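> call design_seq(struct)
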């Protein structure tokens, strides 16, 4: 089930930037998944730790919207939105992060050595059509065959409606 606001924002965005994707607007896509699996746990952990904000590791360079948001609000967004946020990496580049990892010997997820460039929800299809080379679902079939089988059984028909390669 869609929230009306999210659906309208998506439609407006698609009409402005990606008209070819408007044919997908009636497929069952929702913001509820991200809320339940990502945003709620972040808020809960921030509260549990006594923090007055969520600390997010997002980069302004990841999307036009994130760049615009950073230019408007900066790294710390307090009392401007529903939830307070601190985004200390906003102005970092991928090169900055790679350098920091190397200098400080930071342990990173093995997923990056498996060819993934992100490590969000393994079944999230947001932006998959923009990936070059093997997409995340094709990589999933190789790196996590059990989870891939579950995905195909439960979501394969839905994803095929998006004209996305899943095998």
């Amino acid at each position: 089930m869609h929230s009306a606001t999210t659906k309208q924002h998506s439609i407006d965005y698609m009409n402005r930037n990606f008209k070819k994707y408007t044919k997908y607007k009636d497929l069952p896509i929702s913001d509820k998944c991200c809320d339940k699996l990502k945003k709620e746990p972040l808020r809960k952990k921030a509260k549990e730790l006594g923090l007055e904000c969520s600390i997010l590791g997002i980069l302004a360079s990841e999307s036009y919207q994130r760049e615009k948001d950073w230019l408007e609000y900066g790294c710390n967004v307090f009392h401007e939105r529903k939830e307070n946020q601190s985004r200390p990496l906003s102005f970092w580049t991928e090169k900055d992060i790679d350098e920091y990892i190397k200098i400080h010997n930071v342990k990173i997820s093995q997923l990056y050595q498996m060819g993934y460039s992100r490590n969000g929800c393994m079944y999230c299809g947001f932006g998959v059509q923009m990936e070059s080379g093997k997409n995340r679902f094709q990589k999933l079939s190789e790196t996590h065959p059990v989870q891939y089988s579950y995905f195909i059984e439960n979501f394969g028909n839905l994803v095929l409606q998006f004209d996305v390669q899943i095998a």
